[in-house]
Amino acid sequence: MSQEYQVLAGPEGYLPPAAAVMGVELPKTGEALVEGSLVSDTEALHKIADKLLSAKNPFFFPGPLLLWAWKAGVAERAQAVRDLADAVGAGVIPMPDYRPKYPMINPAIEINPNHPNLTIWHNKIDVCVFVGVHCHYANIALKIIRGGTSCYTIALCGEAGHEDAMISLRDVNLAKIQELTAIVMDKKRQIAGGGK
Amino acid sequence: MTKNILKMSPAFADIIPAEYRELVDNGPYGRDVGVAELGTFKELLEEHPLCAGCGLALALRIFLASLPAPEDTIVVGSTGCSSLVFPQAAVQNIHSLFGNQNSVASGLKRALKLRFPDKDKDVIVVAGDGATADIGLDMVMHSWFRRENITTIMLDNEAYANTGGQESGMSQQGTVLYMAPKGKNFPKISMPELAREAGCVYVAVGTPAQPRKLEKMIKRAILLARHIGPTYVQIMTPCPTNYKFKNNETVNRLKGLEKDGVFKPREYITAEAQEALNKLEEVSK
């Protein structure tokens, strides 16, 4: 088992190992994961902004925890994520629930955790953001994406984070989403101004 | 269930696919709609991978339209043709190991009673004849002996249909199938009578060829299971693929089986359940 296993964009092949099995540990409070290494929360926020702004075709995949206003505060968090996607200039494809769809989902308008690769291939997505997806479904979808596509995955998790995402934040709340939006806007201004 | 789970976050309302929007705007959740209103509301199942003419598909459409409270229903399924449908239906469902469905449902119902003591949560087992009468018979019978407050629905296509066509305990004696070339050599199991003797307070045998009647049976079974005791509904669902009839003949075949006396719709109800049913049906008038 390697302690230096890097969680990189694939395709890693059929049945890639779970990053946890390869020694990648979940971040502690205030930390985040970037490609399998523990970094500070702030460093990860900047990495996410850089990845999103340098992507050719970034997409956000909001899950049921955000799409449905099932408890107080969700609608505000959803609005903040939409503002973030708009700030990046990213597309948004929803994951309204986890039902498998046969004969096939419509990959142009939705993503399914059981076949996330179909949506990524169809839309030629090079960087994606999972947000508001229940952890167990996010884990399997992130692994499938790493196994079969070259898409770079980012997970904004309200719980403990995801080892199988290339970048994973933990304890993401409204304030953290707004902080990320502010960083994105700031970097965009720097890019527009030709500065660093 | 809080109905808020059906409320779209305004920020993403514009990207929610049409199927979900229709379920929110015109679905059966929290509404008094049933088989008579089919075609006027968004059904819980949009697509399914079952064979053309499948009797199960017809029965499941009626079943889903008959649920008294789909938002507070959990379907427990088992291996078989019906398990291809439930993961796609817009109702909570659990797929159990082959034959374990009534044990899973028992535990689930007990947990829900503890978690939501003031709310009726309907736990309904929907499984094929193989899962109910053969592989899971032990678990099915013991859930009835224990008087669990669950509904068991058997979709009886008289075969193991999606594994190539083996005979099941529910196949008629003499039945020849792809994987039973010598013909079955013992009679069909009398599950309704077993259910009655094992403690089910309501037992019904129906067919999708009589949708309103089947709806009534399903509703009765679910409502009685809430407080009175276990209930059982056996639905005859012929399989055109294994029984080699044309896929537009399913309903006629059902009618023919009944006319020939091969299939007999029937109901058993205990005195206690009848009393409860009289009150329930009086209230709903």
Please render the helix and strand layout as text.
The complex is a heterodimer of chains A (196) and B (285).
Chain A: E1 31-34, E2 37-40, H1 41-54, E3 58-62, H2 64-67, H3 74-88, E4 91-92, H4 116-123, E5 127-131, H5 135-148, E6 152-156, E7 167-169, H6 174-192
Parallel strand pairs in A: 3-4, 3-5, 5-6, 6-7
Antiparallel strand pairs in A: 1-2, 1-7
Chain B: H1 18-26, H2 55-66, E1 73-77, E2 92-95, H3 101-115, E3 122-128, H4 129-135, H5 137-145, E4 151-156, H6 191-198, E5 202-206, H7 211-227, E6 231-236, H8 240-243, H9 250-259, E7 266-269, H10 271-283
Parallel strand pairs in B: 1-2, 1-3, 3-4, 4-6, 5-6
Antiparallel strand pairs in B: 5-7
Helix pairs in contact in B: 2-7, 3-5
Task: Describe what you observe in this structure.
The complex is a heterodimer of chains A (196) and B (285). Chain A has 196 residues and is of the alpha/beta class. Chain A has one domain (31-189): Rossmann fold, CATH 3.40.50. Chain A is built from six helices and seven strands; from the N terminus they run ββαβααβαβαββα. A seven-stranded mixed sheet of chain A has the order 2-1-7-6-5-3-4, sandwiched between helices. In chain A, helix 5 links the parallel strand 5 and strand 6 (152-156). In chain A, helix 3 (74-88) runs parallel beside helix 6. The model of chain A has no long low-confidence stretch (mean pLDDT 94). Chain B has ten helices and seven strands. Chain B has helices at residues 18-26, 55-66, 101-115, 129-135, 137-145, 191-198, 211-227, 240-243, 250-259, 271-283; strands at 73-77, 92-95, 122-128, 151-156, 202-206, 231-236, 266-269. In chain B, strands 2-1-3-4-6-5-7 form a seven-stranded mixed sheet, sandwiched between helices. In chain B, helix 7 links the parallel strand 5 (202-206) and strand 6 (231-236). Chain B is globular, with a radius of gyration of 19 Å. The chains are: A alpha/beta (196), B alpha/beta (285). Chain A binds chain B through residues 62, 66-71, 74-75, 78-79, 81-82, 92-94, 96-97, 99-103, 106, 109-110, and chain B through 2, 4-12, 15-17, 20, 47-49, 84, 87-90.
